From TrEMBL:
The gene is MYCBP. This is MYC binding protein. Belongs to the AMY1 family. One of its GO terms (molecular function) is transcription coactivator activity. Its main location: nucleus. It is found in: Nucleus. One of its GO terms (cellular component) is nucleus. The keyword Nucleus applies.
Length: 95
């Protein structure tokens, strides 16, 4: 009998932990979204994965990486343009 009480206690602690961390709320929201989908997806697990990632707040690292990506795209475009110009100059100079 004592073993069952200990297991129930651990289970209840874990449930409170999940609730406190917001996991239960996030899971509930995603499952409700799946339930309310008019056309159910072929792969429910992929739906859950996709919507769980979108549901959570983004870490500062993600925003930093997005800014870095945008900056690198601009640099890339500048280098491509410079490359085109240099190729045109080489073509003009070569006989």
């Amino acid at each position: 009998m004592c073993i069952f009480q200990a297991a129930d206690s651990k289970r209840e602690q874990f449930r409170r932990y999940l609730e406190k961390a917001g996991v239960l709320d996030s899971l509930t929201k995603v499952l409700v979204a799946l339930y309310e989908e008019p056309e159910k997806p072929n792969n429910a697990l992929d739906f859950l994965k996709q919507h769980m990632c979108a549901a959570g707040p983004e870490s500062p690292d993600v925003e930093t990486l997005r800014l870095e990506l945008a900056e690198l795209k601009l640099k890339y475009e500048a280098v491509v343009e410079e490359n085109k110009e240099l190729k045109a100059k080489v073509c003009k100079c070569s006989p």
